[in-house]
């Protein structure tokens, strides 16, 4: 189930792992700094909690698509293991089709929610996009509660806020993870579908408890050999 770690695929894989590590590290450092500020200096990093929540959201949402790629989601495959190879493939295709449909619906909802903060039109249609709703009211002036605006993002004031300045970070920035993560989820499920069609795998996820037991058995056999 492992994929190549060379070429463009390897670069993307390392970028994903690095970003996830940075998000986790940033959360840890920020939380630790806030604890020190509160209990040692009787102070507080006002925007620390809100930024930690945003970092955690990015970590979870981006981690979901990464886990699909490396087959790290937990699964129960007791029934699948009872089926013949052809049956496993059929069940896997049904599963990946359901996951693709779900992730496409999530992508539409995520884009529609984020679009108004980016001064973009959301899609029309309840379940599937039927066009763009040009009458939707822009909410590009919405800001987060505590995290201050950073200079490197000042270009957004002219780009989406009609020249008005931001005092706090605009919501379009932290909420960008919503359409991004859902797009990646669609991509990863599509890649999984291709792997199943090619016969490279016969399931979306496996019981990792079983995998651990098999590794332990192999290790014991290696010691005896």
Basic shape:
flat
- Total number of strands: 4
In the predicted model, the low-confidence regions spanning at least 5 consecutive residues are none
Q: What characterizes the major β-sheet?
A: 2 strands, antiparallel
Taken in chain order, the helices and strands follow as HHHHEEEHEHH
How much of the polypeptide forms β-strand, as a percent range?
A: 5-15%
Largest sheet: spatial strand order: 1-2
The number of helical elements comes to: 7
Structural class: mainly alpha
Mean pLDDT: 85
Count of spatially separate domains: 1
The rounded Rg comes to 22 Å
Q: End-to-end span in angstroms?
A: 27 Å
Characterise this structure.
This protein is mainly α and 225 residues long. It has one domain (7-214). Helices cover 60% and strands 6% of the residues. It contains seven helices and four strands. It has helices at 7-39, 48-69, 78-82, 85-115, 155-160, 177-197, 208-224, and strands at residues 123-124, 131-132, 143-148, 168-170. Strand 1 (123-124) and strand 2 form a beta hairpin. Helix 1 runs antiparallel to helix 2 (48-69), helix 2 packs parallel to helix 6 (177-197) and helix 4 (85-115) runs antiparallel to helix 6. The longest helix is centred in the first third of the chain and has 33 residues, at 7-39.
